[in-house]
Amino acid sequence: MRDIAVFSGSAHPDLAREVCAHLGVPLSPTRISRFANDCLGVQLQANCRERDVFLIQPLVRPVQEHLVELLLMCDAARGASAARITVVMPHYSYARSDKKDAPRISIGGRLVADLLVAAGASRVLAMTLHSPQVHGFFSVPVDHLNALREIAAHFRRYDLARTTVVSPDLGNAKEAAAFARLIGARVAAGAKQRFAGDRVSISSVIGDVTDRDVIVLDDEIAKGSTVLELLDRLRESGVRSVRVACTHGLFAAGALKRLSEQPDVLEIVCTNTVPVPVDGEPTDKLRVLSIAPALAEAVRRIHNGESVSALFEQS
């Protein structure tokens, strides 16, 4: 591919290298330094002039460090006369801050979107945003991918005759229903309430799960408290087996270990939108699927001016 330059910050260089391998282009080097006053500095160490520049950086821990890196990368590319700057953000952690649900609270999702555009982003390529309205926070085009095809391809290896896809809450039910259609399964959802202190309660499961093989599907798993609460309700309903799947496997505060220790959880499936943390002993229940081919194909289509939505029409 000509006239394309791909750079990565320090958040997930392995994913960036895999995307470049599928594109057949080199990953251009980036120099990230820290000055004596603790400020970050970024230098893109390849020619950007009149080129189509793609900056790959999920917002993962430490989120603020990686965000500033990304902003500086955008500014560096703009200052180097890039023809177009596309931010490839497999995980937009600030998407969870998408509404004003308390007095005098910031809407971080919109603010960070404004910062990226102000820094020079011409376009954004994202994967499984926390809620659809986050699209509207950006004043530049957003191509929104999901990992449902990759996750569905994994689960099609099993006998799905008695399978129900369960969303932990009604907010994710639409995505769960789309996934259920892909694998020919039923769908159900948890009736979830969130309280102060990030405590959650699921009072019941809406849908038929009794004596069925359940796939719990969420957009991301951080501390895992929602999934663990849902597991209690599923056990009460008499499910036959449980598998857990998500796009963004953040697994903070030992969540992967806690989920792996659940004897009735047969498998935990996520993608490599973020580096999956391994706390202590690795678990043989974890399956990490690659979304690099999907990202690479989307980058290729953006560069060539082709439809990105057509990727989903082929599903």
Written account of the structure:
30% of the residues lie in helices and 28% in strands. It contains nine helices and 15 strands. The longest helix is centred in the first third of the chain and has 17 residues, at 63-79. The relative contact order is 0.12.
Salient structural properties:
single chain; 7-stranded mixed beta sheet; alpha/beta; 6-stranded parallel beta sheet; 315 residues; 30% helix; 28% strand; 9 helices
Briefly note the structural class of the backbone: alpha/beta
Main sheet overview? 7 strands, mixed
Shape: globular
Strand content: 25-35%
User: Which value, in Å, is the CA radius of gyration?
Assistant: 20 Å
Spatial strand order of the main sheet: 11-10-9-12-13-14-15
Low-confidence stretches: none
Helix content: 25-40%
Overall pLDDT metric: 92
Q: In DSSP terms, counting alpha (H) and pi (I) runs of 4 or more, how many helices?
A: 9
Distance between the termini: 26 Å
- The ordered H/E elements are EHEEEEHEHEEHEHEEEHEHEEHH
Number of strands: 15
